[in-house]
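[Automated response] Your request has been received and processed.

Submitted sequence:
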Amino acid sequence: MALLAAISVTCTPVGGLAQKAPAKSADKPAPGKPAPATSAPTKGAPGNAAPSDIVSDNSVPDVGLNIPDNLQLYGKVDPNVRKPTAIVNETVITGTDVDQRLALAVSINQWKLSPEDTARLRTQTLNQLIDETLEIQEAKASEVTIPAAELSKSFAGVAKNFNMTPDKMRVYLRQVGSSERSLRRQIEGELAWQRYLRRKVEPTVNVSDEEVKGILKRLQDSKGTEEYHVNEIYISATPDRTEQVAASERQMIEKIQKGEAPFGYFARTYSETSTKSVDGDLGWVRSSQLPDELARAVETMQVGQIAGPIPVAGGFSIIYLTDKRQVLTADPRDAKLALKQITVRFPAGTTQAQASARVTAFAAATKAMQGCGDVAKVAAGLGGDVVDSDSATIRDLPPALQEIMLKLAVGESTPPFGSAQDGVRALVLCGKDEPRGGDLPNASRLQDQMEQQRVNLRAQQLLRDLRRDAIVEYR
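Generated structure:
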């Protein structure tokens, strides 16, 4: 069960809640922060913007709503009037519900948010709870319910993913300002919606053999072509707002670099494209599928870099290159690794000088290590722990470690990495299975993936319809 794959404040159709522990896992280092790559000019109007792409102050685009030009507002929106509580088809969402869900997301993701960002996140959290409530209600209307015993079993499974017992998990939730009830509700929403989709949606989705053959042929024809996995934040800008929007995006990049919040948070909060609900993820694309401005940037970027603000038609974009590959070509980063990770933690009260001394000793010991058979002895001498991993690929590691791992020989170690809070670590390469390339994906597996994509799309449409028909009373 893919429970708790990403505790966040977005509501995905069939995605998981998070398997991420309060502290970074010792089994798999967390992805590194995006590093700046390029900075595009920001002065003047967005580059190559056609007149039809920019809406002037006194005109309204034709979106089928019959909104008059030069409209006059007869009231104002006061954010202080709408409190973060709601009644959704007679189901009450309290301020405490919002606070507890928000507290857990902030704690797990280790976000450092400004008051303004926190206010926006509260609104997103309320929207997530509304969607979650609608999903549970729709599932119950189709006689899909999750028994209490199954919820308890799932809660215990989540606690195990956090390396805790259920009792310790309850204590942790209270300590961060959340509760068992809040987490169980989140689990119930995901399980109920997944089960509802399996019963009501999946039987109606079909991908023909001809469609699969067409995809396989296109893959074969594009063999060797470079593909990029890109995330984007797009904000529109009229000519009088270009400097303001560009400055805002530069602030976002700065906050991402400082680790105050991840790229996905800003995409969900500020981006104006349909991909905002999936953290701005554009998926795997070729440069020819991107606007020229973004294509030029992404072709010069390295994995893990962020570029922007980039002037595009009608506004500015920030892009984050999470990965790249060549179609049907073996990529060294797909090599499967056998690793041992040594972790040395610092006791409370360790001074900077003491920490530096321990890191120096750690680096010397790992550099002198004679293969993986020596790992346990070295770890014992440093007072460290050892964790084995036989399933990671180079691609799974943060970009900085990927570059190091590509150059390591079996038996060698990475330099120490980590922090005073989480301890310092080193990865020792014990084996490597080189990747295979040139093979088309399995037709049956590809068909399953395509069907799942269509189920996800249908789930989004269903949730949109539920929102449209819901009676939501804000308090």
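Summary generated for your ticket: The chain has a mean pLDDT of 81. The CA atoms of residues 197 and 203 lie 9 Å apart.
If you did not submit this request, please reply to this message.
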